[in-house]
Here is the input.
Amino acid sequence: MSPLEIHRLELTRRALFGRAAAGIGTAALGTLLARDGVAAQLPDQTAPLLPHFTAKAKRVIYLLQNGAPSHVDLFDHKPMLKKMHGTQIPDSVAGGKRFSTMTGGQTERPVLSEITKFARHGRSGATVSDFLPRTAEIADELCFIKSMHTTQVNHAPAITFFMTGSEQAGRPALGSWLSYGLGSACDDLPAFVVMTSRDKEASCGQIFYDFYWGSGFLPSKYQGVKFRGSGDPVLYLSNPEGMSRDVRRVMLDGLAELNEMKFRAHGDPETATRIAQYEMAYKMQASVPDLTDFSNEPKHILDMYGPDVTRQGSYAYNCLMARRLAERGVRFVQLMHAGWDQHRNLNTQLKIQCMDTDAPSAALVKDLKQRGLLEDTLVIWGGEFGRTPFLQGKITETKQWGRDHHPYAFTIWMAGGGVKAGMTHGESDEFGFSAVKDTVHVHDLQATILHLLGIDHERFTFRFQGRQFRLTDVHGHVVKPVLA
Here is the structure.
């Protein structure tokens, strides 16, 4: 090894700071400026210059309803289903279409009428099921998209598609892209937080895979930080018995010196990630206890979220946590709630699922609005696909009525963050089977989300394995009619 290389490796931390004072001073100034003004859009020197234009949203809360809510029972009212209930769905509508293995070989596909009652709500006249009374109350705050469609008929690839832009695992999640491009607006919490919950009956077996919030080929410091549903939100957040905060600080300083030496020797970005994540964990030891302390929440706010709001790990608890994270500057909050996969229990489990999620979802929108946060917070509610307008199983087996996975048309809603309130975009056909007007593909939705955050999805790329990758691959168009 050359003397110069030996000297570089043996450079002390004190000498590094002394000789690099100008550079470190500039970085420190950048950190201060990043909290306010234009510099807030330059959180990472390796990231592209963002935003490309003025953003309408500063943060996103994605309420992903894992398992796929039935659009024809909740939002997309189709009188034809009641008219043709029990009769075979026409081949002109369903013929040649691909379904999951649960109905792929089913010879009879009887039309199944909605099991709920629909009514129009608000000045917008949006149709919402009686299973979602609290959502109906905020209809004029919502932008419904009733022409969503996707390519996948199974849960994991369909969720992966929504979260990463690819059906195959391994690409960066949407929250990771935003953390990389826009950075964090807070110093003591991660930019990308994930929380999961499931129905108390454990009625379906979907698994929350880590790649739903992984960083893919981006540096791992941009992956989502999952908050657990019991105990400390993050493992090892509390100091072990006998270790004070001062001792932890000394230990982390020593680790930082060792990691800095390693980074100077090899330049591995994952070493820089370790340094950053150790520091974030230390800061979270102080910030998370305050974040999770609901004692300062007024009773009427807790009541608005519902009786489960104080039960850690529940959907209601996570929705209130999402609001508290948003007001602290967290860039992307990803809530995932399983239990919507009603193949053979539609008559029982759909109502239970709606009771668990309706009030918290609506409360989140109301809470953000009354605090002045909804204007620049984009809230998204929806599943990975819809449910078939025809029955899975036999029409005579009433207790086992259900619907299969359905990628050809389904409904999501958005609120705040620069989308038009009180509108419905797109239509499905008279059976709710196929999107037929103003159709919106998964990549279109992703392009629109990025646009609301001031990002041109075609220009926001990362070079990996010899090519420029982007969230929307080579597809996607901004859905301009939904923009406020």
Confidence is low (pLDDT under 50) at residues 9-45. The radius of gyration is 24 Å. The longest strand covers residues 59-66.
